[in-house]
Amino acid sequence: MAEPLLRTEHITICYNGRPVVKDVSFELHAGEILGVVGESGSGKSTIIKAVMGLLGKGGMVTRGDIWYKGQNVVDMPEKELRKLLGPEIGMVFQDCKAALCPIRTVGDQIYESMSEHEKVSRKEIYERASEVMGKIKLDDPKRVLDSYPFELSGGMNQRVGICTAMMQRPSLLLADEPTSALDVTVQKQVVEEMKLMRDDYNTAMIVVTHNIGVVNVMADKVLVLQHGEVMDYGPTDRVINHSENAYTRKLMDSVLHLKRNGSAA
Amino acid sequence: MAEIILQAEHLRKVFTSGKKSFTAVSDVSFSLERGQCLGIVGESGSGKSTIAKMITHLIDITEGRVVLNGKDITQVKGKELRDTYKEIQMVFQMPMESFNPRYTLGDGIGESLVNSGMKKTDVKKKVEELLVLCGLEPEFAGRYPHEVSGGQCQRAAIARALAIEPSILICDEATSALDVTVQKQVLELLIRLKKEKNLSFLLICHDLALVQAFCEDVIVLYRGEVMEHGAPDEIINHPKTEYTRKLIDSVL
């Protein structure tokens, strides 16, 4: 099997000397989707922050390595890491509206993020943005690009976030609760669109969420965390339906299912 | 036929700002029986919370009537309004934000009791009883909201709502901000309260599975209008409108 795109080896991450993630290992190949689930405070987001080098002042990877395409991200100088973030590793946040500048148009901000990494004209950016927006079913790209974030709905802003990240065709997309702030109907659309992105661009994804349903329909593999420790790691079906770990079973049992006549679920 | 405790008749809410106006809720009617639970589901902006706020007088009612125990409370003010709060209490979505950060949980829970003229020592005892009822240790009375977890805080908020022994509890997305495991605990608490205290609930949420597990009756709202009204199992298995079908299909 080919060398994995991303490999973390026994990483321990501490905030101010207190470990929040303990001895976590996983691998991700191109085009694979990994779901990371757990309760609040279990260290889900910390893991993807570590990959992005966004742990901040108090946070540090104290043990283990994170390998991205054969390079160790943990020891990488900030300047080099910045070159990776965007073109190679993209990120989608929980609240994309908050991640956008409120007083500038969406188009301006997409142009800014792209022109950081390559020399392209505004016209070309708009054309490329329109193409990606068309794929994720954002109607009327021109209106979206000329709009301010507050003029768009939550679901539209979230799609703008996904579009911005995907325009640079990253090999790895990190998504932190990408659908948690959305209504169920919009959530389903965004999930479908992210799967479409994976199929079209062969992007690998790490999706951090507390919504087991999202993981169930999206992920190939699942990592279950509790208090920073790995409770379970394996193929989605095995972890969700046939886990031997007591905590994982408790977590899955807590999920309420819609009871429908004649359906398997 | 069971006793009807709360009735809403043709509720309508129009928000106006300058010359623009927006109809958030148009013509919503329902009735709630004692000891039963009515769920209100719909997307953001469908008017779910607006209905709750109209019933609790947090916003004015544009048109329609609210009847509590056979008494019209649509226009009540002052002391009469305060009396209705003894019957209807509300639990909000963000437990941390609904408590005063500079008061202990015990102070927050006991506030309504102090206001109703109860003695300090009795208040303390009652607060501890309420905490135990909601599955928390009595020592939580001395803690501040930021010192407890989201689930614990939400249970304290339920204890606070129960302090003056209301007959109706309105839960506005009370479990949406909680982890699934904690959500299950809070749900179990609500089911217990419903049985033991014969409480009636108005459960506002966007989670159909939660409604199916807890409610006898459900209203599906879309853009301020009632799409469907009936038993959850019936609506989920035999949706009548296109929108309800879409909502059910979206559940992952």
Description:
The complex is a heterodimer of chains A (265) and B (252). Chain A has 265 residues and is α/β, with parallel strands linked by helices. Chain A has a single domain (6-254), classed as Rossmann fold. In chain A, 39% of the residues lie in helices and 25% in strands. Chain A has eleven helices and ten strands. Chain A has helices spanning 44-52, 78-84, 96-99, 106-115, 122-135, 141-146, 154-167, 184-201, 212-218, 236-241, 246-254, and strands at residues 6-15, 18-28, 33-37, 59-68, 71-72, 89-92, 172-176, 204-208, 221-226, 229-235. In chain A, helix 4 (106-115) crosses helix 5 and helix 7 (154-167) packs parallel to helix 8 (184-201). Chain B is of the alpha/beta class and 252 residues long. Chain B has a domain at 104-163. Chain B has helices at 48-55, 78-85, 95-98, 105-115, 120-133, 150-162, 180-197, 208-214, 232-237, 242-249, and strands at residues 4-17, 20-33, 37-41, 63-68, 71-72, 88-91, 168-172, 200-205, 217-222, 225-230. In chain B, the strands form two sheets. Chain B has a six-stranded mixed beta sheet, with helices on both faces. A four-stranded antiparallel beta sheet of chain B has the order 2-1-4-5, with helices on one face. In chain B, helix 4 crosses helix 5, helix 4 packs parallel to helix 6 and helix 5 (120-133) crosses helix 6 (150-162). The longest helix of chain B is centred in the C-terminal third of the chain and has 18 residues, at 180-197. Chain B is globular and about 55 Å long. The chains are: A alpha/beta (265), B alpha/beta (252).
Describe this structure in a few short sentences:
The complex is a heterodimer of chains A (265) and B (252). Chain A is built from eleven helices and ten strands.
- Given the C-alpha coordinates, what overall shape of chain B results? globular
**Helix content range of the residues of chain B, please?**
25-40%
Number of separate domains of chain A: 1
Helix percentage range of chain A? 25-40%
State the CATH class of chain A. Alpha Beta
Rounded radius of gyration of chain A (Å): 19 Å
Strand content of chain A: 15-25%
Task: Count every helix of chain B, treating DSSP H or I runs of 4 or more residues as helices.
Answer: 10
- How much of the sequence lies in strands of chain B comes to 25-35%
Oligomer: heterodimer
| Uncertain spans of chain A | none
Number of strands of chain B: 10
Q: What is the makeup of the main sheet of chain A?
A: 6 strands, mixed
Mean of the pLDDT scores of chain B?
89
Poorly predicted regions of chain B are none
Number of alpha- plus pi-helical segments of chain A: 11
Q: Return Rg of chain B in Å.
A: 18 Å
